[in-house]
Structure prediction request, 592 residues.
Amino acid sequence: MFVDKNLNYGIIGNCRSAALINSKASIDWCCLPKFDSSSVFAKILDDEKGGGFWIETKQKFHISQTYLKNTCILRTVFRNENHEFEVIDFMPRFIKNKGEFYAPPEIIRIVRPIKGSPEIKFKYDPRLEYAQGETKHVVKKNMIRSRVDSPKHDTLFLYTNIENIKIIQSNLHKLEETIFFNISYNEKLKTPQLSDCLLNFDRTKVYWLNWCSKTPVFKHYNDQILRSAMTLKLMSYDKTGAVLAAVTTSLPETIGEVRNWDYRFCWIRDASMVIRVISKLGHKRIVKNFINFIIELIPDKAQKLQIMYGINGEEILTEEFLDHLSGYENSKPVRIGNAAYTQKQNDIYGILMDAIHAEIKQFSIGFERLQEIWSIVKGIVWVVKNNWQNPDKGIWEFRSEDLHFTFSKVLCWVAIDRAIKIAELLDKNGAAKKWEPLKKQIKDDIENKAWNEEIQAYTQSYGSKHLDASVLLIEQYGFISPNESRFISTVNAIEKELAHEGLLYRYKNHDDFGLPSSSFTVCTFWFINSLIKIGEVDKAKTYFDNLLSYGNHLQLFSEDIDFKSKRLLGNFPQAYSHLALIDTALSFNLAC
Prediction:
């Protein structure tokens, strides 16, 4: 069985859940009915136990994979001299007559012969509930029902237009007519037919074409911007407005090590950055939904934000270990849940406030809940005023001691700066004037304590000599202008210290797990963006084109890139990576 070694996966989804399909058309990861549900396919985490749905061929084939243009519909083509067939995979999403979205928890797979009569086997092997119990199959007249009773009861249903027993027995099948598979979390009241699947295909295709038509066309890097935007859309949970950091769990930052985390949650920082960049592309719905998600999270005016929540607003995200799974390329542990939800990170307030400010400025007429937003703004100012001088875990979620991280301090400044701007937009000038001294106090503190005269750079934390890629964002958030000597000097110092093999370290000081051996992808994008801002556009373009070449065959990026091999590592696809790709590409379009 082929197991992809470079995360050459495509993602399909419908803003309720998602699936990863490798470059040879194997469905290796899917959780139903929601992003954070237990897996029904988890071959990506254990080739033997995880479960998947793949195709085996009698003849040898050249296999290629692409998305249908301007859609999230995946097409895998098997071709040799005598035979050719295609596999179309998608999760239905389209608008119904009443304006509601049809986005059921199901995958539709269409297999269509193009030339000859290829002989193939369908290997359908779901393992429900993270493969913790035995999944048993019952062949019925119109479906295959897969069932597990331990650790809890769950079921999955497969509908197809070929004999069900042939699927269970993996019989060799001569492909002479179009075959469909509907993998549904719910039992269908009406048995699906091929015509139903083809209609859902057409409607889903139209949905994505319409969505893409609302995105501006750019002179430079337009294809990359559009694919990244669609990928971010796939990671938004339409029911609540939450935005996921990634759709996977426990894909390691380094093969064989233990930096394996569950990213199927909504980090306030990541999500706020996503909607900030998506708003630049004019997609109002995802922005409005996220703001509503935030409003629902903060019912009390003095309530502090957690750094992350479940996609339905859950506050408790207890971390557990699935010891029965071997992990991606034997990289244990496999985790579900994330203990980081208890951490304190002061930067989240500034990033959220920046996003709120951008949306009010751009879409203020469309926000029916401005009064509630204003209450949240005042509440955040109160929280920042009383906490900005305290240490925290920082953007990288160090699990050891709290420090006075520069990035966290700068984002506290951003929180107050944006609160003042919001107040001015809402004609609350008295509040704006009252908050000005706090803004100045935070800025003076940063300038006096974060700048290292010897290194000629803003460092990772107060009194430290360590450099940190997150400090590059101080220009993006308006703390400093790109032509100021301190920023230019910081960019140059970070390149000298953290750049390696065309990529960037987050930092080089040892953390809880030692020196990172892979590059956190978003950091290289941040660095390239900083080069553009200080006028080093040619150098930035060289870095950028190299970095884009490390994406997979579908222009998708994970969390990390190995310094030596340039293989993709970490959870996938990563919202951080794709939002930063868009931001950097937009900077090129402004600069060129």
